[in-house]
Amino acid sequence: MGKKSISLTFITLIVGFMLAIQFQSVQEPVVRDTRDTWQLREDLQKEKDLQARLIREIRSNEEKLAQYETERKQSKEEALRNTLNELKEEVGLTDVTGPGVKLYIDKVNEGLYLENVEASISPDSLKRLLNEINMYGAKHVSVGGQRVINTTVIREIAGETKINGRSLKSFPIEILIVTEDFQTAKKLANRMEVSEVAEEFFIDNLTVNVLKPEMKITVPAYEDVIRVRNIEAVKSE
Amino acid sequence: MWLPVLGLIIGVLLGFLTDFSIPVEYSDYLSIAILAALDTLFGGIRAHLQNIYDEKVFVSGFFFNILLAASLAFLGVHLGVDLYLAAVFAFGVRLFQNIAVIRRILITKWSAKE
After folding, report:
1. Looking at CA atoms only, how far is residue B94 from chain A in angstroms?
2. Nearest residue of B to residue A29, measured between CA atoms
């Protein structure tokens, strides 16, 4: 009898539990909506008022934002900042991306000679090459990852040709040129193909390869700090 | 004899106190399982009154009926046929029959006492 009633109790316990859970699950939506048409209308009206107020608020905020934006644009600070950025770009302190041409200066094919070829680029021919490139409409140039700026020095130090103080030893040397537009880049590439200066590199056992102009070439920024000596600001009255 | 009733009450209290509710899409399964459980429970009471109660049959029938009813409902959902109605019908009919038999037995016992 005892065992019997225990199992029965267990089962009635399960049944009761299931019943209670089912009751809870089914009776979840207890609150009924008992509003009539007028109350619904009033509530709707209230919500609409709220919406209108929120929209007004958003609009005023947006107006304020636009106002601030125009003020900022017209302010002296913005003008100065723009000028500064323009100047930085002009001087070469920023990365520049645009249509341009890639040149590679490489050793002459070593199969032509029996012995190993010693090749080194001479500063004079590199300068001439850069002059020519600038003549044909280059805007921003880098040689072997070094940006060429107004004060860039190309010279031989202890038998090594250096640009901005960095050696140009590992061939091929990559020259990146960014031009005003794609048309100029094409012209520049064509001119470089037939350039005599490029021919003269052969004396140093080097060749200049001109790649096809591309729409996107990025010239890196000048790495060092530009030190201004011998320049003073003009004192205005 | 009062122990099963106490178990029922404790179960109901436990269910309400745990504040546990199942998702709406599964409430069909639970309802059919409850129906199966009630059917088995009343069947057990009837068998007890008729003195043919077997504990193994009762306990196994309880769980087996619940599982069968739930799986029938599951199958019905996946076949697109309301198969759980079959279970509702079967258990409903048996529930009524069991209760009728219990009532008769109680009446005969009561009239025999007089």
Report:
1. 17
2. B24
